[in-house]
Model the fold of this input.
Amino acid sequence: MANFDTSAWAKGQSQLMNIYKDAEMRTIDPVVLKMVLSTTGIMLPDYKVLKVSEQRPVEGNFLTRTSRALGVGGRTHNHSGAQGVSAIKSFTWLTYDDKIVTTVKEANNSIFTLEQTQANKLQNVSENFAEDLEAKASAFITANRTNINIATAEGTFDPVTFSFEITEATNGNRAIQITKSVMKLNKYAKFKYVVVCDTVAFNKFEFDAAQGAQNSTNLSFQYQNVTFIHDINLSAAAAAIDPTYTKGFWEVVPEGSVSALPWIPTQNAQGLITPESMYANIFDPLTTLQLATHSYWTRIDGTALGGNTQDTSLETQFSVDIALNTVPLTTATETSIFAFALV
Done:
């Protein structure tokens, strides 16, 4: 019940041990979020210096690829060359937050101490950030899959679902080998690959990767230099793309091609106490994010919150700004993320 009402000293009761609390407080491992956060310092190393305010826009410059056929006219004394071209990528941050309230007297008539109830609230905040931001990172990768794929061998690129379809009955056991070929044909040969899988694809690839030289059919050769991630949100996303994608769906993210840029305001990063508010930050070990905290005290009747009539509440907001990005490409519908499906 709300406000820890069930823990009030109304009858004889005790606390459940941790093993009994763990199932209720279970949460996910935000592996997709951690993957995009792992490249934070690669895409825009100085973004924290540039972004000094929530209102300040930030852009990144990059040099573009200029492709042209080689000349065959021989050497000349009056040749003229082509100049290079640069481009700009803009970054957009969204603020994500969660809020809790604590009263000074909320533990007076409770079996739990104030420290225990506060720890429970903080754990819930951490798990809320993990689950929501994991879903946001997953949806971002899926939404930004490339619309352009020149590969045609042993599969077909669907221009509606933007997925390279591989026939499961004939080539399912060689799906990762074909995936690598598709990536090489699209000029991503030098990259290591992170393969973000739905549940069916992850189970299949984990099983096939274990079929090594000691097995009658050796399938392990195709799994070198590939990292597999089980995205628990991807099965639903694949069904939304195409309801027939039930045999396995996955996305290939070349290492370093997707990033998340987390940011908190300067006052939170440095810490500041004013007569009205407290600005600080807290490290979230579950997401590995530094969360901004903003708190203020208010005189209240705390009975509705499990406290007492003469009480004081501490309102606290936890927040972080995140910009999810893919590496810039000059073709509007092209990205470095490739989607695949077994059909």
